[in-house]
Amino acid sequence: MGVRVGMVSLGCAKNRVDAEMMLFTLKEAGFELVADPAMCEVAIVNTCGFIEDAKQESIDEILELAELKKEGKIRAIIVTGCLAERYQREVMKELYEVDAVIGIGANNQIAQVVNDVLANKKQELFPNKANLALCGGRVRSTPFYYAYLKIAEGCDNKCTYCAIPMIRGSFRSRPMDDILKEARELSEKGVKELILIAQDTSRYGEDFAGKPMLAELLRQLCRIDSVKYLRVLYCYPERMTDELIDTIAEESKILKYIDIPLQHCNRRILKLMNRRGDREILTALIHKMRERIPDITIRTTLMTGFPSETEEEFEELSQFVNDIRFDRLGCFAYSAEEDTPAAKMKGQLDENVKKHRQEIIMEQQQMIMAENAQKYIGKKVKVICEGFDRIAECFFGRTKADAPEVDGKVFIMTEDQKPRIGDVVEVQITDTLDCDLVGTYNGTVC
What we know:
Rossmann fold, six-stranded parallel beta sheet, alpha/beta, single chain, pyruvate-formate lyase- activating enzyme, 14 helices, 23% strand, CATH 2.40.50.140
């Protein structure tokens, strides 16, 4: 039996794919992988460093493991991921219990780093970010019926509030043939839903083709017989071309769901963010998408309290949310990240003001989603069963209008027949629970 290694991966799905690739490297090297880092000899924290809350979550996780190390329950702690890449040598200086800190370009060296810390050799490795592999084996950590498919790495958008280009490097598309190969392998192993991710999926192909190639990639994926469903996350509004919209509309395998982070609608604020558009342009785009793609679910992300945001500009954002009635929405209070242009801007707002504005937007959205949920009562919907909720004492799942981990649930009431995890089943909606749905299962598997 090999040395037991456990990993906790924080942050986004893109970080999760990196974690899965490191786990594969460790497994190939003969280490025993354990789900619970507290039950292992070497614990790895694959950190997030996007905003202040994410950084604090990463630090808290490291400190919890540090306590276990003091008690002699684990031997070593390794820190990887965005926090490690961003703060590099500061991590070990501030958190002396850590035995190794490696940047994203050293992910492929993780097995050697584990051997080094077991030999009491401290390590700090920060090679070129471009060394981060775009493809390779993975030990999937998602349920068997869905998987993330990372199609690119890095970002060139240079939004003034965002540290991602500093952390992850320049935008690099993954070769299309390699994406198609992995998609085929995953779907042949029983994966029903492939979720395309990148820092900006809509930019895919610009670096090798000189133009966006996401629409072509989607068409090629749809031609793979074993592929059942495709979901697209992280598209930028200025790259939602007619070709991409029409491809989503026409291809039956592509779920009619789009994640399109807008951040704001006011022209001045968007310009300060180094983003394009205004309320009129964004409204026209959303109307076009809704006209061309029947029953589309649109998810967005907004930000409140950007430096110098006035009360009037916030009110414009609030009215925009009410007018558009997004199907899904997340809202963040602006976080001033070191070394970003926005952190140096005049007019930094009080934390309470930023948070209060965030709460207002989220309260509006909760009301919109609760009202939208009522429309499902009496209808039959297809739901992928994801598990059994011991508190609610029923099965639960999600519709095609819900991405895993970020969107809503359907609580499934049953009598004699029980749905199987991973099955797509028909559920008659009978009630709502805030923004979630409640329904009954009659045994029909789709």
